[in-house]
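Example record

The entry below shows one chain as it appears in the dataset: sequence first, then C-alpha cells.
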Amino acid sequence: MKAGLVGFAQTGKTTFFNALTGQHAQTGGGRGDKPNLGVIKVPDVRIDRLSAIFKPRRTVYAEVLFVDVPGSRGKGGGFDSATLNALREADALVLVLRGFVGLDGSAPDPVRELADFESELILNDLVMVERRLERLRKEAGHDREKAVLDRLNAALQAEVPLRRVDLAPEEEREVSSFAFLSRRPLLVVLNAAEADVVQGVPPALEAAASERQLGVMIACASIEAEVAALAPEEQREFLADLGVSEPAAARLIQRAYALLDYVSFITVGEDEVRAWPVRRGSKAPRAAGRVHSDIERGFIRAEVMRYDEFIEIGTEARMKELGKLRVEGKEYVVQDGDIVHFRFHV
C-alpha cells in the first residue's frame, strides 16, 4: 500500500513527511528529484487491547508506505517526469496545501492550489487518453476500449476527474493499465500556522473539497514535527497543553489507510497479534492469502469473532459457548475488525 504525499513546492509536505516517519529528510529546494520513502504503522487501539490480553511475543500493525513526491515548481506549468513517475506509482494521493504566509510574503490561497493541482492531474490524463484514442482510430477492433476511453475523454474535457466517473468492473479492466492520475483517491491536508489550526478548515476550502467529493483536514506540520521528536510521555504532555488527544499525524495515517479502501482483519495468539490489511470487499479466501498463499489455496473455512463482542465477552471459549464464534465459507466478505482463524488443508 503506497500513499503519495504530494503538492506544490514550499507547502511544507516534507516537514509533514518527517513528522509522519520520524525521519530527517531535507526540506526546501535542495533535495533534488528523488522521492523520500517511509513505512508508517497505522495506529490501532484494537491491536493494543488484544496485545494486552494475549501478551504475544510479537505485535504487528498494518503499515502504509508514504512517498514524499518532489514538489511541482510551476503551478500550471506541468509536472516533470520524476514527479509524474512517482505519482503513477502511488495507490492514493495526500495533497498538502499551503495555509501559511509564504517565504516571499505571499498570502496563502489553498483553494486555487487545489484547483491547479486537480487541473494538472486532469490534463495529464487527457493527453494520455487522446493519444490512445488517436492510435485506436487507426486500428480495427478494440471497440470496448474505445467506448470506455470515449466516456473518459468526455469527462476530462468537462474537467471532471476520473475518480468521479463510475466504471463497471469490465470497463475498469479495459483501462487498468493506464495509471490515470485523476482516478487516484485524494485526501487534502491544509498545512496552516499553529494559531490557525484551532479555527478549523476555512469554509471556502471546505466547500471546494466537498464539491470535489474529497476529504480535508487541517494541521501544522512544524508542530507535528516537534511532537514526533518527543518521547511518548512528553508527547502526551505536549498534546495535552495544546488541548488535543492525538497528533494530527496519527489521524492523517488513519485517513490515508481508509483512503486506500483497506480494512484490517486480525489474527491473535501467544505468538503474534497482527493486523492484516485487505481491500474492502475481499472474501475469506483472498484474506487468507494475505497470511500465506497455502492457506488461500487450501482454504476450508474461517472462524470469525467480532472484535467488539470479543472485548465484551473476554475469551474465545466463552465466545464459542455463546455462539458468537461464527464459521464462514468461501463467500464470506471479511469485515473491518474481524478476528479470524483460518482452517485449511494442502
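Notes for this example: The mean pLDDT is 90. Residues 110-136 form the longest helix (27 residues).
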